[in-house]
Every structure is written in structure tokens, then in C-alpha cells.
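Late entry, evening session. Most of the bench is empty. Finally got around to the prediction I had been postponing all week. Sequence below, unchanged from the version circulated by S.P.
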Amino acid sequence: MLRAKNVWRRGARGLAFLVALVSSHAFPQGLAEYQVKAAFLFNFARYTDWPSPAASGHDAPFSVCIIGRDPFGDELAVLEGKIVHDRPLRVRRGVALDQLQGCQLLWVSESEERRLAAILRAAAPYPVMTVSDIEGFVEAGGMIGLMVIEERVRFDVNLAAVRQANLHVSSQVLKLARNVTGVKG
């Protein structure tokens, strides 16, 4: 009972941080754009349910993969080893199309805009959340598109793409989205 209460408190603090990031009028003091985006990635990972990791083993790390040029620099390093769904988070940079099976969250860099359709096709068979700040990412079939509007990082969600990957994003995250498309009417 005590453990469940502590997990809930940590989850509530994480969601409160995400709400603060979304609702603030500018980047939180001292944080750069990709620090904020890294925090978003971590919270998307925490507030999304993936299918059981039975195929890769319960002790396999939770992999955040980057395809293309890495815009984060050291910003993702602070996430290494943090626990996501009882698994240590690992960042994998320079991932190739044939290495997506072990990824849970895939950042598609702007450098890959020309290959976007091929990347999304390659990711489709796996339960991998696709996230990017490429303009029109969600409309192209990506799951979560980040953008900066009036110095705030905001995001859109393609719920149909999320569901097709057999993922479940928390309703609390969906409430924070600027736009949610692909909702069954």
C-alpha cells in the first residue's frame, strides 16, 4: 500500500511538471528548448502504456532511440538510468531503420524529414512511440509532434497512430495536447 502511494506521488509530481512546462508562458528559467523537449519525452514515456515486454525480457532497458542527427546533445544524458515502467531508461543514438524493434520511443530528427515516410513504415510493426519536431509530423502519420509556439513547447497527438501501435497514452496527457487527431467519433 505504501509503495503504491509513493508511486502515485511521484507520478503526480511528474505530471505536474509536464503541466507546468505546457502552461508556462516561456521556457522555464534557465532551460533550453531541447532540455524541455527531453522532459516531454520522459513524461510521454512515463504516461504511456506499452504491451508487455515479454518478447525482449522484463529486465531489458526502456529504450529511447534517436534516428538522424541528435539535436539533444547532453540533454538526454540526465535521463539515462531513470526508471520507466520498472525498467532503466537507455538512450540509443544513431539508430538505423533495421534497429527499431528494440525501441519503445523513437525521436525522428529533422535531418530525416526526407525519409519520414520510410521511417514511419519501418516503425509501424512495432509498439514504438514516434515523436518529432518536424513540421507536419502528426499529419504524416507520426504519433506526437512537438512545436514551439510563443516560446512554449506544445504538442499534437495522432491518436489513431498511437492505437495502431497498441499503445495507450494517459488521458491526462491527451488533455494537455494542443490538438488530438484520429479520435473515433
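Two things to note before I forget:
The mean pLDDT is 86.
The two ends are 38 Å apart (CA to CA).
Will write this up properly tomorrow.
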